[in-house]
Amino acid sequence: MIAFVSMFIAAFLAPEAMAVIGGDLNCTTYNGTAFVYAPAAVACSNTISDASCAVLYPAANTLYPAAGNDAQRAYACYTTATATPAAVVADMKAAALANCPKTCGFCCQTDAYNCRNADYPRLNCATITLSQCNSVAWRSIIASDCPSACGFCLSGGCVDAVTNCGNDLSICQTVGMQDFVNTYCQKTCGRCPSSTTSASSVTTSTGTCTSYIADSSTSCAAWAANGFCSNTFYTLAQRRARCATTCRIC
Questions:
Q1: pTM for this prediction
Q2: Residue 204: beta bridge partners?
Q3: 191-213 burial code (b ≥16 CB/10 A, e <16)
């Protein structure tokens, strides 16, 4: 009887908690009392300026999504409605994801954060902190085992162990620095281990084709430059679904 009462109370309270954040509960977690934003909800940066996002998606109650709070999402982040309950409108959400994912609390669903982690990671992916994401000791391990925790989903499992390698690209060719760049600047200096064939040789079992389905992402050119098309960190099906034309996958 007590268990039934507890379940009834939880069911009664849940709609109220849901109404705070809005009709789309992605990137949130239930803390026992209310739905709150998970850290990954605001881990990324907006594509356009924060000021522009504030104009496009004004905070309903002067409070924007942040890890652990339950601020109401701006309706324009996910719907054309002006009151809850509101149905999710795919085009509205796609625009928010493309331009203002942090302002809308949708970072966990962006391409950089939305991927599968290793089945048996060397650390707990759910407890990774921002300092670990930027740590020399952890970055490479996280990129391989827990890429969704730090926005490494498009890295192909390879990142720079230090974050400032790109400040001086001449380091990649500097005599006496090669041991350093081979260890700490693999991404920037093109020293990532490769166990794949080139993208141009990837075909399906039916052989070489002359036409390809359209890319579903506008970021394919940038991803291809970073090795997305040829790195088997992603399955062939995943690469085909996102960037079939750019990667020339049948």
A1: 0.62
A2: 207
A3: bbeeeeeebeebeeeeeeeeeee
To 10 degrees, the CA torsion angle through 70, 72, 77, 81?
140
Dihedral (C-alpha) 52, 55, 61, 63: value to the nearest 10 degrees? 0
Residue that the structure tokens 């790195």 belong to: 231
**19-29 pLDDT, tens per residue?**
488 888 899 98
Our measurement of the distance from residue 91's CA atom to the centroid of its chain's CA atoms, rounded to an integer in Å, reads 19
Categorize the per-residue pLDDT at 210 as very low, low, confident or very high, splitting at 50, 70 and 90: low
HEC assignment per residue over the chain: CHHHHHHHHHHHHHHHHHHHHCCCCCCEEECCCCEEECHHHHCCCCCCCHHHHHHHCCCCCCCCCCCCCCCCCCHHHCCCCCCCCCCCCHHHHHHHHHHCHHHHCCHHHCCCCCCCCCCCCCCCHHHCCHHHHCCCCCHHHHHHHCHHHHCCCCCCCCCCCCCCHHHCHHHHHCCCCHHHHHHHCCCCCCCCCCCCCCHHHCCECCECCCCCCCCCCCCHHHHHHCCCCCCCCCCHHHHHHHHHHHHCCC
The residue type of 94 is A
User: Is 36 or 212 the better-scoring residue by pLDDT?
Assistant: 36
Whose tokens are 């705070």? That residue is 20
Is the pLDDT confidence value at 83 over 70? yes
The string of pLDDT tens digits covering residues 96-124 is: 999 999 999 999 999 999 998 998 999 89
Sign (positive/negative) of CA torsion 182, 168, 137, 228? negative
